[in-house]
Amino acid sequence: MRFVVLGAGGIGCYYAARLLAAGHQALLVARGEHLTALQQQGLTLKHPQFSFNEAVAATDVIGLMRDYSASDFDWLLLAAKSSATEPLMLQLADWLNANPELLILSLQNGVDNEAHIASVVGQERTVGGLAVKIGAHIIAPGNVEATGVAQVDFGAWPNQQQNPTLQSRLMALAEVFTHAQIPNTVYDNVSYALWRKLVINNAVNPLTALTLLNTRELTQHSVFTHTVKTMMQETGRAANAEGVHLTEADIEEMYQLICGFDAIKTSMLVDRLKGRTMEIDDICGPVIRGCIKAGKPATTTELIAALLRNAVQ
Ligand SMILES: NC(=O)C1=CN([C@@H]2O[C@H](COP(=O)(O)OP(=O)(O)OC[C@H]3O[C@@H](n4cnc5c(N)ncnc54)[C@H](OP(=O)(O)O)[C@@H]3O)[C@@H](O)[C@H]2O)C=CC1
Ligand SMILES: CC(C)(CO)C(=O)C(=O)O
């Protein structure tokens, strides 16, 4: 299968390496020193169960539009930060719409990426998705370190019932992922999967970025572990206000999952340490808005988001 990975950083390079190692095509779209390293030295990726060190095809967005046509690819995997989704989609709109067969799968955190994608290419080409149980970061240009079982959960956006035509393409992708050692689940209701993952991200990403603790230190901390739980419950309240049914059992499952997961630096903590823009609006924003809609504000999420913004001013 032919993939283009748009925003090939930690997450994008991990999945691209898995697909390349399984014999598929993947063009990496990146920029800056990381792109230069990919072009000149190839991609080096280390994971406890997998390593990759090979030349790769890599370009930037301008090179993608100039040298390739959308019909050169079957799938576009979007792995840039959520704040880049809307500008990237708008920049690529004409290019993307020259081939209606090209489907777009978001691997990003947050629950708003798919609406931005659909507003440019249409719902019938929009696949919601998530990188689950993975930590993956650029440690030097062209070098990525990853950990975790690194699953992908995905499905027709906003759900199979409202977007029924994609089923055979989704099944074919699931088969390719499985063959490439990427565990995966296809959801009938991917909006549920997106919000369930947001339960973890809203609870641990801003708090780890604020405290500089890893996920294990955070969830084992006598005070912060309660804050994690509260922010998870606020995410559940927001989801329900947005029409996505999350139960107490979902919250508990997400809490146990992150407590038992590897001790990792979240992507937001890594962004803070690198002095990069953090996904605060994309992760906390939907929770704050949803809880206002529910009539009971997300006071803890609001506080942690405000403290974090204040800390990096
Ligand atoms: N990292 C992790 O462990 C996890 C991350 N996620 C989610 O996955 C998504 C990706 O995260 P992550 O892999 O950490 O992000 P990274 O910043 O490592 O990767 C994104 C890459 O896209 C590049 N990029 C952004 N805009 C452009 C552009 N216009 N043209 C070319 N390249 C561009 C960035 O370059 P530049 O650096 O110059 O901006 C960067 O190299 C996020 O939504 C994150 O929340 C989910 C699970 C775990
Ligand atoms: C918390 C974690 C690692 C879960 O996969 C994540 O999504 C992130 O770091 O952004």
Automatic annotation (TrEMBL):
<dbReference type="InterPro" id="IPR003710">
    <property type="entry name" value="ApbA"/>
</dbReference>
<keyword id="KW-0521">NADP</keyword>
<protein>
    <recommendedName>
        <fullName>2-dehydropantoate 2-reductase</fullName>
        <ecNumber>1.1.1.169</ecNumber>
    </recommendedName>
</protein>
<dbReference type="InterPro" id="IPR008927">
    <property type="entry name" value="6-PGluconate_DH-like_C_sf"/>
</dbReference>
<comment type="function">
    <text>Catalyzes the NADPH-dependent reduction of ketopantoate into pantoic acid.</text>
</comment>
<feature type="domain" description="Ketopantoate reductase C-terminal">
    <location>
        <begin position="190"/>
        <end position="310"/>
    </location>
</feature>
<dbReference type="InterPro" id="IPR036291">
    <property type="entry name" value="NAD(P)-bd_dom_sf"/>
</dbReference>
<dbReference type="Pfam" id="PF08546">
    <property type="entry name" value="ApbA_C"/>
</dbReference>
<dbReference type="Pfam" id="PF02558">
    <property type="entry name" value="ApbA"/>
</dbReference>
<dbReference type="InterPro" id="IPR013752">
    <property type="entry name" value="KPA_reductase"/>
</dbReference>
<comment type="pathway">
    <text>Cofactor biosynthesis; (R)-pantothenate biosynthesis; (R)-pantoate from 3-methyl-2-oxobutanoate: step 2/2.</text>
</comment>
<keyword id="KW-0560">Oxidoreductase</keyword>
<dbReference type="InterPro" id="IPR013328">
    <property type="entry name" value="6PGD_dom2"/>
</dbReference>
<comment type="similarity">
    <text>Belongs to the ketopantoate reductase family.</text>
</comment>
<dbReference type="InterPro" id="IPR013332">
    <property type="entry name" value="KPR_N"/>
</dbReference>
<keyword id="KW-0566">Pantothenate biosynthesis</keyword>
<feature type="domain" description="Ketopantoate reductase N-terminal">
    <location>
        <begin position="4"/>
        <end position="158"/>
    </location>
</feature>
<dbReference type="InterPro" id="IPR051402">
    <property type="entry name" value="KPR-Related"/>
</dbReference>
